[in-house]
């Protein structure tokens, strides 16, 4: 009798584990609806300088999106660290590689519209509708701050730097599927096949 109970318990646990694994993998490319903020980059030097200050100091974007190790010493010297991404960050959820924020059209944000960049910053949703992971600190930026940031990013030198895809552990994939969500929008229920 005990063997029979043990056998059925093991079978139920196996089915449960398989079900969680299948559900987790099937939810890796959820898409989200989010509005496109009505913003447009400016060529005004004061706006660009404000954007530089936000990126380099206030929001600290440079701390993650620069592959350079000595960021603080460069900033103290008045130099601008590259925003070419590819910083490798090891977490319990997997290995995260930061995005290239330069206006390079093939490996950076060069092909994105200003509204698409603003949508990523404000809502954490990429142009294809998937969530940006990990999340950034842009949700509470005003439109003026967003224009400044986008203007600055458009003004810097494009750097071709292909960044690898994130390498999530199963825990990371589970969190991505069921826990982590962008700042505001709810999933549309559709899946993007890759």
UniProtKB/TrEMBL annotation:
MF GO annotations: electron transfer activity; heme binding; metal ion binding
Domain (Cytochrome c): residue spans on this chain: 46-157
UniProt xrefs under Gene3D superfamilies: Cytochrome c-like domain
Signal sequence region: 1-23
One Pfam family matching this protein: Cytochrom_C
The entry's keywords: Heme, Iron, Metal-binding, Signal
Record has Metal-binding as a keyword: yes
Name of the protein this chain belongs to: Cytochrome c domain-containing protein
Species: Rufibacter latericius
């Amino acid at each position: 009798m005990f063997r029979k109970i043990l056998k059925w318990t093991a079978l139920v646990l196996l089915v449960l584990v398989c079900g969680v694994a299948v559900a987790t993998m099937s939810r890796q490319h959820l898409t989200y609806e989010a509005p496109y903020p009505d913003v447009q980059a400016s060529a005004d030097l004061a706006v660009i300088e404000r954007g530089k200050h936000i990126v380099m100091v206030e929001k600290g974007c440079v701390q993650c999106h620069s592959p350079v190790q000595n960021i603080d010493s460069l900033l103290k010297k008045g130099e601008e660290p590259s925003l070419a991404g590819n910083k490798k960050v090891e977490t319990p959820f997997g290995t995260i590689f930061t995005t290239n924020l330069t206006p390079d059209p093939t490996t950076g944000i060069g092909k994105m519209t200003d509204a698409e960049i603003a949508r990523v910053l404000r809502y954490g949703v990429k142009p294809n509708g998937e969530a940006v992971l990990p999340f950034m600190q842009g949700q509470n930026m005003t439109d003026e701050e967003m224009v400044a940031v986008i203007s600055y990013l458009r003004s810097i030198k494009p750097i071709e730097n292909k960044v690898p895809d994130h390498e999530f552990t199963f825990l990371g994939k589970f969190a991505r599927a069921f826990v982590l969500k962008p700042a505001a929008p709810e999933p549309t229920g559709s899946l993007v096949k890759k």
